[in-house]
Each structure stands twice: as C-alpha cells, then as structure tokens.
Specification:
The structure holds 2 protein chains of 2 kinds.
Chain A (H helix, E strand, L loop, with lengths): L5 H12 L3 H26 L7 H12 L10 H29 L8 H27 L1 H12 L4 H8 L3 H25 L7
Helix pairs in contact in A: 1-2, 2-3, 2-4, 4-5, 4-6, 4-7, 5-6, 5-8, 6-8, 7-8
Chain B lengths: L2 H16 L2 H12 L3 H17 L7 H10 L10 E2 L2 E10 L2 E8 L4 E8 L7 H16 L8 E6 L4 E6 L3 E3 H5 L6 H20 L12 E4 L4 E3 L5 H4 L3 H4 L4 H4 L5 H8 L4 H5 L5 H17 L9 H10 L5 H4 L5 H10 L11 H21 L26 H12 L15 E3 L14 E11 L5 E4 L10 E8 L3 E6 L8 E4 L13 E2 L4 E4 L15 E9 L15 E2 L2 H16 L2 E3 L6 E5 L9 E8 L1
Antiparallel strand pairs in B: 1-2, 2-3, 3-4, 4-6, 5-6, 7-8, 8-9, 10-11, 11-12, 11-13, 13-17, 14-15, 14-16, 14-18, 15-19, 18-22, 20-21, 21-22
Helix pairs in contact in B: 1-3, 2-3, 7-13, 7-17, 13-16
Classes of the chains: A mainly alpha, B alpha+beta.
Chain lengths: 199, 610
C-alpha cells in the first residue's frame, strides 16, 4: 500500500462519486488506515471516558484525506452523502472480510476468543444490516438514505435534515420507522438464514 | 413492494404511534379492515419499534473506532497474501497478526505471520533475519518451528511456518504454575532446541513464554528464531540503546513484556551470546514454577535494575512443592555474570534429564501427590520440601531410592541451615540489621555400592560413606575450605575445583552457583577410619584472604613446615575470635572475624560425626 497525497485521494473520491468503482478499491485501504490512526489517537485522548464523537472522527478523516479547498463539491449535502456512502462501503467491506476469516476458522480454537467474539457479533450485524438497508432502499430510498447518513456517516439529526433539505422532525419520524423496519428485517433473517453463522 | 402499499403502511404506522396503547388496537382494526397482511405489516413494525431500542443509535464508525482502539479488530488486509489464503486469525500482538492460512500451491495449512511494516524498513536487518530464521529451521530439530517461506506481498512481509495446534506458554501460564515434572519436560525440549541452534551458531535472543508453543501432544516448539534481529534494538548498531523499548511507547504491557525477558548483558547493551538465551530460559522456567516473573518493577528502570542486581526469591519458597534441584538449575541459569552461568545448553540438558529421572522415580512412590501442587498451600509442608526441616515424605523417598540402588545425583538443600552473618559484637542490639543469608551447604554422600544421598553432617553418618561438600553463596566472595584438621596430615583445600559448568579456577565464588568440592565424579572425601568426627573449617570472605599465604596455594596442597606454622597461627586466631553457635545447629559454628573485614567474613565448622 503506497501513500497517496491528499490531492490524489480527492481525485479518487471524485472519480468514485462519478461511478468509477476501481477508484474505491484504491481508496478503501487508505481511508481505513487513516481511520485506524485517528481512532487510536482519539481513544488515547479520551482516556477512560470512551466518548467518541463520530462526526469529529469522520470530519478529521476527511480533512486529512481530502483536499477540500481544491474541490467544488456541488454542496455540503453532496459531500456528506459521498462521505457516508464511502464509510458504509469501507466498514461493511472490512466486516465482511473479517466475518469470512472467522467463519473459515469456526472449527478452530481462536486464542483471542473474547475479543473475537465481540468482533464477530458486530461484524455479523454490520453485514446483515447493510443487506437490510439495501432492501429498504428498494422500497423507500429516502429512509435508507437517512440511515446511511446517520449510522454510517455519523451525522446528527440536524445535519441529516440539512443535508436532505427536510425538517429535523421528519428525520426523526422516518428514522424511527426505518429503525423498526430494519430491526424487524434482521430478526426475521436471523430466524431464517443468518443463524448458520453460529455453527 | 408496491410504493402505494408501502405509503399506506407508513401512514397507518405513524398514526398508530401517535395514539395511546388502548386506542391503538381499535385504530389498526379500523384502518386495516380485512387486510390481514396489512395488519401484520403494521403490527410487526410497531412491535419492532418497541424492541429496537435504538439499536443503530451509535454510528457504525464510532463502533468501529472503539473496536479499533480496543485492539479488537484485525488490521485491514486482503484475504489472500501471496499464494496463501487466510482462513482464520490465530492471534495478534506486537509482532503482527498470525493467521491460519492455506498454501494454495502445496495444499497444506500453515501459520502465516504478517510483520508490521515498522520492522521491515531496514533491508539489511531483514536479510540477517531471513538468514538466521532459515538456518535455524534447516536444523530440522523437532523442537524448532519449521519455517517454510519468508516472503513479501504487496501488503507486508510474511513468514509461513508449520502450523502448531496448541498454545503458547504465556497462555498456558494463565492457567497457573505448572508441576515440577511438566516444567522439566518442557525445559528439556527447549534446552534441546537451544543446544542444536547454539551448536550451529544461532542465538535466539528473545526467549520468552510468547515464543514457546506447546502442541496438544505435548511437543514443544521454540518459535521465531532470528526474529529478534528485526524487533530488538540492534546492539551492534545502537550500542544498547533501550529507547526503542522503553521510550515513546504507550502500552506498558509491550515494554514490560520485552524487558522482563532480558539478560543482564542485554540490559547493559553488551553483545548477546548463547548464554543470554540460557538466562532468559531461566526466567521462563522461574515463571512456570512460581507463576510470576522473577524480575519485576513498577517502571522499566526498576525491571532493569532487578535484572542487573536483584536475586529472585528461591523457588522453593515461591512454590513449596518444587524439588530443590530444579531450584538449583534455575538458579544456575539466572546467574548475573554469564561467565559463571550454565555455559552450554547441553550441560543444562544433562542436568534436566537427571532431574526428570529422579522426579519420575519420586512420583512412583508418591503417586497421590505431584510436585508443584503446593502452590497456594504454603502452610502445608507435608510434601517434604518445605524449609521447616520436617521431611517425612522425602526421607521415605530417599529410603526407597537407596533400596533400589539407583545412581542418582542427590542434591539436597538444607534451607534451614543458612549461615547467618552477625556483626562482631555478640550482644544483640535493637539497631542490629536483619541477619543476611550468606551461604548454604549440604553434603553429598556415596555408599560403597555407589548409592548417593545427602546429609547435613549434623547427625551421625552411616559407616562407609564418602562425601562431597556443596556450597552455594548468596553473594560473590572467596571460599576457603580447610580440612580435615588431623594432627598428622593437615591439608589445606581450596575451592579451586570448579563445578563442571564454571570456568573458575580460584577461591572466588559467584552468587548462586553450586560449588562442589571435590569436583569430578570420582573424587570423594574419605573419612579416616579411626576418627570419631571430622571437622571442616570453612571461611567465606568478601575479599581474598592475604593470611595465611598458603591459602593461595594450589588445591590439596600438602603443607610445608612453614605453612603449617602459618596454619596453626591462623587456627588459633580463629579460636580467639568470638564464636557463636547457631541455635539448633550444634555442629555449626559461626565466627565473625573483625580483624579481616569488618562485618562480612564468616567462618564455620562442619563437623561430621561417625
């Protein structure tokens, strides 16, 4: 993995938002590595409080990676939408990879059972949630977008409202329904298919 | 789903939410009418709403960041590295992740270790590491992990090795200390691996519990030969700079994990040789027996000081079930001065194998009790190795052993017979410092038919036994043995006979090394037939004795007339000094001789009664 300049990262991000999927493959490790660094530093700074500001994390990641001044984003909403999409792609992708690794080793005794157990549960959730979110997008893309911005992009209700040009109250209402729908979808899936993971 | 239908569900859902619980059911009944499917959609969503409890309220990125910060997330990477397909994560630590992987070319499973980039920046060091890792693997030793390949993919340097289905000693330690026989079995295999590697000129440099694996079938594998070339500060290049270890790192576990397994010469930044591996093995064995590290401290500096200067508490005290000979082996591994440590792994191996034979034998006669089980029951001394002197079980074992005519080295420390220095003034005062243990001894015996045993010399000796004296000083000093004091044949013995593993040829003795007098399998002290008792006078001094001069003569030197005169004067000098018997040890006299060096010289007699 080579170090890319912020200029190149910005270029990749724009290319991706224009539909170039290969740009994403180059972006992913960079952004994730940056996230690693930032997360560790934030955690050290926060000490035992473990209060992490998701928005601050995302903002810092993008500030470090993207030369915002040189890009004319269509608007703020566009930027957030791209950011949330990218984060969704990256986080789910890594969760999926880890899940695959762990599934392969299900019969083995993994030394770090505890840590791995926590990760596995979360990864399963994240991958399944991503699938459910895609299903939701097919029947109600607006609600799917709200979840993407809030859950993957780390935006607050107000920021989400601003990005989507709707009222915060509408965001709250729709977020509530989206959450219920996703929860129902996941518990149904769990009873049906996903449970095989527990083998 | 039909968008129109979804909008309908949505509308009913929002309206139902705004109603109270009692109104809700009626409202849904009215709104859905006979459409059961619609009703089911709405009610299941409402019920999910209640149960969801904000399950996605914490943003994913925050969850991820927490997991990353907590170290729960493997570093990002592809699922294949070179021609290896990663199957599962086996473990991760400061040295990078280790995966169970499938070699897609040779169709076999391997352990694949990815090296952090920080360790592979210096091409020279990488090359040296490769050479050494492959050289160690090429020895084909059953206790050295086989390295298949060292390579580089786009992502990282990797090492593909045989996959060990088992656990590290670190993990084994988490379940508590091991029993003596287990420790010896493991130690023998490690010593075997080190002996082979050292013979080939390869030093491990980083022997620690993390680098020793035990397979399910109890085969031990020493892993990561050569890796220290990458991970430890380069003594040649860095002049022993510890900053790489102690500075700038935020995780104390990392610092201490490395520091705790350093030899004194490593801590000083001197170059490292095979004897350093032996010291580190001593640390590991100590930990396996005691369940804790011998050298600890609150700060890295404290740990280093402990390694350089502190004597760890005797293992027999840490784990009362431990046989003293294992204590002795570990003590000899942990000697600070490497010149006086075990010099070669083969010698250690021999001692361990003898210890195993004896332990196995002892176990046969005490089937209900295994050595080492007494941890946490320090008050329970019935295992016979406690320092109280009550040793019923042990004596029994010795009897059995004698009956079986086994030729076993019998090393027996009488920990209660410490020689304690006291200041010249015999009157105890409140300000008097606590007595310090200076030296221990025991007598090894052999019967005419070759049966070995051990006694303390305080009880009458069985007829026909020959003797050897064993001394272990707790600090560096000079040891003089003068005996026997028969009028017709006074002879001055020096402790010039070194133990096998010691290069010493003078009276100088090093702390915690067992000195045998006389050395050699065939040399024993025979007692004169007629005498009722034989007295050995032992002088232990922090500085060389200048008088009488014959003490500097070669061992077993026959005294010339003038030397005999000197000796007699010396003896009478001893007699004039204030003598103080240690209570309960009638055969032992301790004399402080203020005229030699204030406070430190101890003279005592061992009287052997027949």
């Amino acid at each position: 993995m080579t170090e890319l300049s912020t200029h190149e990262v910005t270029h990749l991000l724009l290319a991706w938002s224009d539909g170039d999927q290969s740009a994403l493959e180059k972006l992913t490790p960079l952004v994730y590595a940056e996230l690693h660094k930032i997360a560790k530093r934030h955690m050290r700074r926060q000490g035992e409080n473990h209060t992490l500001q998701a928005t601050a994390l995302v903002n810092e990641a993008y500030l470090r990676l993207i030369d915002a001044g040189s890009v004319r984003w269509q608007n703020r909403a566009h930027f957030f939408a791209i950011a949330a999409q990218l984060m969704r792609w990256i986080l789910v992708d890594f969760a999926r990879r880890r899940q695959k690794l762990k599934r392969g080793g299900a019969a083995l005794k993994v030394p770090l059972e505890e840590a791995a157990g926590v990760t596995r549960e979360r990864d399963t959730d994240l991958v399944a949630l991503d699938e459910a979110l895609s299903a939701l997008a097919k029947i109600d893309s607006r609600k799917s977008q709200i979840v993407e911005l809030r859950f993957f992009g780390g935006l607050s209700v107000e920021e989400t409202a601003e990005a989507l040009k709707i009222s915060p109250r509408t965001v709250m209402r729709q977020w509530g329904l989206a959450q219920a729908w996703l929860y129902r979808e996941l518990s149904w899936t769990e009873k049906g298919g996903v449970a095989e993971d527990g083998s | 789903m039909d968008p129109e239908r979804w909008r309908r569900i949505e509308r009913i859902y929002y309206e139902a939410l705004e109603r109270g619980a009692d109104e809700q059911a009626t409202f849904i009944d009215e709104a859905c009418g006979a459409d059961e499917e619609l009703r089911h959609e709405v009610t299941s969503l409402l019920s999910a709403h209640e149960r969801a409890g904000g399950f996605i309220a914490t943003p994913a990125i925050e969850l991820e960041a927490r997991a990353i910060a907590a170290g729960n997330v493997p570093a990002p990477g592809a699922t294949t590295i070179g021609h290896y397909e990663l199957l599962s994560l086996l473990g991760e630590g400061g040295m990078g992740e280790v995966y169970l992987a499938r070699d897609t070319r040779l169709k076999r499973n391997v352990a694949l270790k990815l090296l952090p980039a920080a360790y592979t920046l210096d091409a020279d060091r990488v090359r040296r590491f490769e050479q050494e890792a492959l050289a160690a693997s090429a020895l084909n030793h059953p206790n050295i992990l086989t390295v298949y390949e060292i390579g580089r993919s786009e992502e990282a340097y990797f090492i593909a090795t045989e996959f060990v289905d088992g656990e590290t000693l670190r993990r084994r330690l988490e379940r508590g200390p091991l029993c003596a026989l287990e420790v010896v079995e493991i130690a023998i295999q490690i010593a075997g691996a080190l002996a082979a590697a050292h013979k080939a000129g390869i030093v491990h440099r980083d022997i620690k519990p993390e680098n020793i694996m035990t397979r399910r079938d109890e085969i031990v594998k020493v892993v990561d030969f050569g890796l220290a070339k990458l991970t430890l500060p380069d003594a040649e290049a860095g002049g022993g700079d510890l900053s790489g270890l102690a500075g700038g790192r935020s995780a104390p576990g990392v610092i201490f994990g490395t520091l705790n397994y350093m030899s004194p010469e490593q801590a000083r930044g001197s170059d490292v040789d095979q004897r350093s591996d032996l010291f580190c093995l001593g640390i590991v064995l100590y930990e396996l027996i005691a369940g804790r590290s011998p050298f600890t401290g609150d700060t890295p500096a404290d740990v280093i000081v402990a390694i350089l200067e502190k004597q760890p508490p005797p293992l027999t005290r840490e784990n009362s079930g431990m046989p003293p000979e294992l204590d002795l082996i570990v003590t000899k591994l942990l000697v600070k001065d490497r010149e006086c440590r075990y010099q070669r792994a083969e010698v250690l191996l021999g001692d361990l194998q003898r210890a195993r034979r004896r332990l196995e034998f002892a176990e046969e006669f005490t089937p209900t009790r295994r050595y080492g089980d007494a941890v946490g029951h320090s008050g329970d001394r019935t295992d016979g190795y406690g320092p109280t002197g009550a040793r019923p079980r042990t004596n029994k074992v010795w009897l059995y052993m004698a009956a079986a005519s086994l030729l076993l080295i019998a090393i027996f420390f009488l920990t209660s017979r410490h020689f304690i220095f006291r200041p010249a003034d015999p009157r105890p005062t409140p300000a008097q410092p606590a007595p310090v243990e200076l030296i221990r001894y025991f007598l090894e015996t052999i019967s005419p038919d070759g049966v070995k045993g051990a006694v303390n010399g305080l009880e009458p000796l069985a007829a026909g036994l020959d003797l050897k004296l064993h001394f272990t000083a707790r600090r560096r000093g000079f040891l003089y043995i003068v005996a026997p004091d028969e009028k017709d044949a006074p002879r001055a013995f020096l402790t010039a006979q070194p133990t096998r593993s010691s290069a010493l040829v003078s009276n100088e003795v090093i702390a915690d090394v067992d000195y045998v007098f006389p050395a050699g399998d065939d040399n024993w002290i025979g007692l004169t037939a007629g005498a009722r008792s034989t007295r050995f006078t032992i002088v232990f001094s922090p500085t060389p004795l200048r008088s009488p001069s014959f003490l500097a003569a070669p061992a077993r030197g026959q005294l010339t007339p003038s030397e005999r005169e000197e000796w007699e004067a010396f003896q009478s000098g001893l007699d004039r000094a204030s003598q103080e018997a240690i209570a309960g040890s009638p055969g032992v006299k301790v004399t402080a001789r203020s005229e030699i060096t204030a406070g430190q010289t101890v003279v005592f007699d061992i009287t052997i009664k027949k």
